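Memo to structure team: turn this sequence into structure tokens by end of day. - J.P.
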Amino acid sequence: MKLVFELGSRGRRMSILPECDVPEYVPGNERSTKPRLPEVSETELARHYSELEDNIFGLNNGMIPLGSCTMKYNPKINEREASLTGFTDIHPLQDPDTVKGCREVIKETEDALCEITGMDAMTLQPSAGAHGEFTGLLTIKKYHDSRGDNARTKIIVPDSAHGTNPASAAMAGFKIVNVSSTEEGIVDLDALREAAGPDTAGLMLTNPNTLGIFDRNIKEITDIIHEAGGLCYYDGANLNAIVGNARPGDMGFDVVHLNLHKTFSTPHACGGPGAGPVGCRAFLRDFLPKHMRSFSCNFLVVVRALTYIKMLGGDGLADVSRNAVLNANYLMSLISDKYETSPEGVRFMHEFVITMEKMEKEHNVSALDIAKMLDDYGIHPPTMYFPLIVHEALMVEPTETEPKEMLEYLSDSLHKIYEQSITDPEYAHSAPHTAYITRPDEVKAARKPVVKYAFE
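Reply from structure team:
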């Protein structure tokens, strides 16, 4: 499709904005030249956005089983509450006494998240999950610095950890120590004991991990780190698997970050406002950030999350994780006759990882090919080639909001794709066949992206 800059012609206009009802203010530092904005009619603009909508796949179009991302349905009541004028018609610089209701929302959300995670204090300031990771790590760093324990320069990160963990730790100034997993996909305790020592600042861990496995040794893991003098950081990426049924604080974690878009049904990704709250135990309270962003938080995202929490209550949140685990294991049971999980013979939680290594070796059909073929069945591909410890990986998380019939449709689609891949590998290599974009040059797109429109 054409860019909006390629539509219309010079001088074409529309009238869709209301008259300005405030005096014009010219600060004196206006542009020397006018911006080159698209010149289109209202008809052209309306059709342009309709075409964009037609070519975007979202949860309103179909299932998005992205592993470790928890692409669940966003209840519309969340949007209704976030649209209330008492929340939308405020200004961050107005007198705090005039926004007591909004302050109460923030306090209630902090209290609820503390109860859910087993933490004692919570900040809503971080704007996303990775921002929350960075905040949590700086909290750990400040704690050690306050004690003069400056030798603690290393963060232990298991190879099954969430992908952003090493990057966040490096940004916070730590050195990364990688710890291997066992054949069962859990932390190798002997390797962890060997890695932990007087230079250990902390451990970053996702539980369940990115293989979808709850580490049965979790309390022993956190004890090993604490005995070495380090702190334990919980990456909340997979909290959707345990919310309402288990708490990171009870497992021995000292710091937690949450992804409101993953566990608490706020809109996910695409560069929009996010929220990655960070919680901690009481002894770390003073090390949480006071002013790390312009204002308190991405407030309307928090309103959506609190609506979700209050609508479900404690019992409802517990059902979320139970149903998420049930859906994942039901789907896995439906496809296990054709698709091999990694590792095999273990109990998974909310997600599982398929390895297409055998298919790739025997029929030259890769995980990428399988993912592309799913597009033709109206299903968004799962996470590809992650975690890195699994070759030709497809990471599948159906979430609790998908009905049984949808899981069975995905299973049927995967069975057909499996047979197609064996009988006609070339068909798989050219998939998808019905999508708007088929097989772009992904290397060129990554290395030579076109990020601006070149005017004639």
